[in-house]
Design brief:
Helices cover 38% and strands 18% of the residues. With 144 residues, it is α/β, with parallel strands linked by helices. Bound molecules: 1,3,4-trihydroxy-5-OXO-cyclohexanecarboxylic acid (DQA).
Length: 144
């Protein structure tokens, strides 16, 4: 099984960015933890981060054929990228949407996700653990 991990805009700043919201774990630490869980599950990962919506769409299009599914933290794209929604649907890529924070406990504009209703699952509010729960969930879904 091959799973893509996609980190959206500003997630490179993890560890430095609003630590009261996102904590002190860096993105490379998140990726390391994902790598070790992937080893346990026997899953291959392909990891991608971009601050640019179009680059994420291009990456998904280029990689979709080789992936069984995607764990994605769409970051700010969550709340408005119809392009990302259309790409995930158009490529028939099962995906889990993850968030470090709990968007429902924040500003009202974060309550809306344009992806959640077409996701295989959504995990939010567990800090970096959300990614690991998302990977476990997607692996279980794809295995069943
Ligand atoms: C986020 C939540 C989004 O609202 C925000 O734009 C992010 C990060 C999260 O992981 O909690 O960049 O996706």
């Amino acid at each position: 099984m091959r799973i893509g991990i996609v980190h959206g805009p500003n997630l490179r700043l993890l560890g430095r960015r609003e630590p009261e919201v996102y904590g002190s774990t860096s993105l490379s630490e998140v990726d390391l933890a994902l790598g070790s869980l992937a080893g346990e599950l026997g899953v291959e990962l392909e990891v991608f981060q971009s601050n640019h919506e179009g680059e994420i769409l291009d990456w998904l299009e280029a990689r979709a054929g080789g992936l069984d599914g995607v764990v994605i933290n769409p970051a700010a794209l969550t709340h408005g990228s119809i392009g990302l929604r259309d790409a995930l649907l158009g490529l028939s890529l099962p995906f889990v949407e993850v968030h470090i924070s709990n968007p429902h406990a924040r500003e009202p504009f974060r309550k809306e996700s344009v992806l959640a209703d077409v996701a295989s699952g959504v995990v939010f509010g567990f800090g970096p653990e959300s990614y690991l729960l998302g990977l476990r969930g997607l692996h279980a879904r794809l295995s069943s």
